Amino acid sequence: MILNIASAVLIFLGVFFFTVGVIGLLRLPDVYTRLHATTKCDTLGAGLILLGLFLQGNVFIAIKLLLIIVLLWITNPTAAHVIAKASYCSGIPMSENSFELDVSSGKGGA
Fold this sequence. Notes:
two-stranded antiparallel sheet; mainly alpha; 3 helices; 5% strand
């Protein structure tokens, strides 16, 4: 009984984070902020849902789900970094309210 409740709570939280990611995708102004919101929410949401399913499965299914979680933790941030770098190198502008960090001085600049 407690295992079912914990599993349902984890799955609900995962769906919540997916929903927040979709709202961020629709509401945020540029590709960089959208990418940040969706990547964070996607990784956490999928991890929580898979963890909730992990509690319901047998040993072999649980091992597979853990491997999928690890794969997601590695590939989602890596893919987001590649997409952001490609966008930046292609000259896609940031939102007017964003700023670029001046690495040499440590201060933000317009």
